[in-house]
């Protein structure tokens, strides 16, 4: 299956070749979970606080599907 993955804020340092808002298109086996995709990208689990799939919050153990738009978001603070 082919998915698009985006990372934001401090997670961008793990994928320095991506521009702001740019996606990495990946081919992964059918049924690959969102956590397995995170591992492939070498994003530390403790830094990922929210996972969104097609603009809806998802759980790490959820499987991805062909065409999914996956976003990994770190904890964000500010005011």
CATH fold group? Ubiquitin-like (UB roll)
Q: In whole angstroms, how far apart are the ends?
A: 39 Å
In spatial order, strands of the major sheet run 2-1-5-3-4
Q: How many extended strands?
A: 5
Count of helical stretches = 1
Poorly predicted residue ranges: none
Brief account:
This protein is mostly beta strands. The chain is 9% helix and 28% strand.
Write a concise keyword list for the protein shown above.
5 strands, Ubiquitin-like (UB roll), 79 residues, mainly beta, globular, single chain
Report on this model:
With 79 residues, this protein is mainly beta. The protein has one domain (2-73): Roll (Ubiquitin-like (UB roll)). 9% of the residues lie in helices and 28% in strands. It contains one helix and five strands, in the order ββαβββ. It has one helix spanning 34-40; strands spanning 2-7, 24-27, 50-53, 56-58, 69-73. Strands 2-1-5-3-4 form a five-stranded mixed beta sheet, with no helix packed on it. A hairpin with a 2-residue loop joins strand 3 and strand 4 (56-58). The longest helix is centred in the middle third of the chain and has 7 residues, at 34-40. The model has no long low-confidence stretch (mean pLDDT 95).
Topology of this protein?
Elements: E1 2-7, E2 24-27, H1 34-40, E3 50-53, E4 56-58, E5 69-73
